[in-house]
Write a structure and sequence with these properties.
By secondary structure, this protein is mainly alpha-helical. Among the domains are: 108 residues, Serine Threonine Protein Phosphatase 5, Tetratricopeptide repeat; 73 residues, Tetratricopeptide repeat domain (Serine Threonine Protein Phosphatase 5, Tetratricopeptide repeat); 53 residues, no CATH class. The chain is 78% helix and 0% strand. The protein is built from 22 helices and no strands. Helix 13 runs antiparallel to helix 14 and helix 20 packs antiparallel against helix 21. The radius of gyration is 29 Å and the shape is elongated. The termini are far apart.
């Protein structure tokens, strides 16, 4: 190829780059990558092509390959914002959160522009995934002061407060987001409705929760989170028959779900239908060990006066998950039912020796020592 021909091709690079980025917008990644490689054949240090291929690799979740291209781009331009953000996002994709945080903080040291909100939000997301809610809130709230109507920031704050158990604060941000988008709610906004429902459910404001869960269910009739929320609200209201209806709708699509099988078992047990409760607990246990299913089965056995079977269930729980307050009290109650006061005392003393000591356990010990029954 002549020098003049090469120069002519290089003049086409801006148009080729524009074309490749347009292909990315339409998820035509193979074609985009070919165009970017064509650019690199002409100019191996072209920043747009290096970042572009990094983006293609990242969108395909090939994060390790993406990192190589972003790093090569940063050798050309150490402060390139797109390469820095892409590199950090790739480390986040690999769950290398500390590396991602270092890069985003480096970016913030370079930049005071409109991209700060996006990076602050990303830092909030990453700290939330690490369970560091204090740092997550620090960055989300910084971003919120810059843009108080950004959906990603509002949802990030909503999730963070929910996960740390502050449901009132979480509700405030989900309501802000709902108000922002209520005029154009569409399929993808089911998460707003279900998260509003979940806040009200945790606050035991079940009627308010129903309003949002049923709206979500109207948009998507088999949405797991809406069905779960409705069922759990009915459970909170002790309307176990209605709860079963919605738990079973989940099981129609996910019959192996241990947690839901256990929830159905609990509902039947609370209705006094021990045969059906046993059936669902055993289904859950057959899938794999499930603490609550085995505990539920033990309680059913106690209700049906199958005390030896209950003791077997409870000792299995103790073996698999360790002694806790609930297991200690139930085991002691079973031994008292068998008039085996010595075993009842031993299990309660074992609990105390393991740091499980509260007024209820101490009172039970006193009652047994005085030769009295539980109750």
């Amino acid at each position: 190829m002549s020098i003049n021909s090469n120069f002519k091709n290089k003049k086409n690079i801006p148009e080729l780059s524009k074309s490749a980025y347009n292909l990315i917008k339409f998820h035509r990644y193979d074609e985009a990558e070919r165009v970017f490689n064509q650019i690199l054949d002409m100019d191996e240090t072209n920043i747009y092509a290096l970042v572009g291929i990094g983006d293609v690799k990242r969108y395909r979740k090939d994060f390790s390959s993406a990192i190589k291209y972003y790093e090569n781009a940063l050798l050309v331009d150490p402060a390139n914002k797109f390469a820095l953000i892409g590199l950090a996002d790739s480390y986040r994709g690999l769950k290398k959160y500390n590396e991602a945080i270092k890069i985003w903080e480096k970016f913030l040291s370079f930049s005071e522009n409109e991209f700060d909100v996006s990076v602050l939000s990303r830092l909030g997301d990453t700290y939330r995934k690490m369970g560091n809610y204090a740092k997550a809130l620090e960055y989300y709230l910084k971003a919120y002061t810059l843009d108080n109507s950004n959906p990603y920031i509002l949802s990030g704050l909503g999730f963070t407060y929910f996960e740390k158990g502050d449901y009132e604060a979480s509700l405030d941000y989900w309501e802000k987001l709902y108000s922002l988008k209520k005029d154009d709610l569409h399929h993808n906004d089911i998460k707003i409705l279900t998260n509003l429902g979940n806040c009200y459910r945790k606050l035991r404001r079940f009627n308010d929760a129903f309003k949002y869960f049923y709206k979500a269910l109207k948009m998507e009739e088999n949405n797991f989170y809406a069905l779960y929320g409705i069922a759990d609200c009915y459970r909170g209201l002790k309307e176990y028959g209605k709860a079963i209806t919605y738990w079973k709708r989940i099981l129609e699509r996910d019959p192996e779900n241990k947690k839901i099988l256990t929830r159905v078992g609990d509902s039947y047990r609370n209705l006094g239908d021990y045969n059906m409760a046993r059936k669902y607990y055993q289904k859950a246990i057959e899938k794999d060990f499930d603490y609550y299913a085995l505990l539920g089965l033990a309680i059913v056995n106690i209700k049906e006066n199958n005390i030896l079977a209950a003791i077997e269930n409870l000792n299995q729980l103790k073996s698999l998950s360790g002694l806790n307050h609930k297991i200690a009290l139930l085991l002691a109650e079973c031994y008292v039912d068998l008039n085996d006061y010595e075993s009842a005392l031993n299990i309660l003393k074992d609990a105390v020796n393991n740091g499980i000591s509260d007024k209820e356990i101490r009172d039970k010990i006193k009652l047994i020592k005085r030769g009295k029954l539980f109750g």
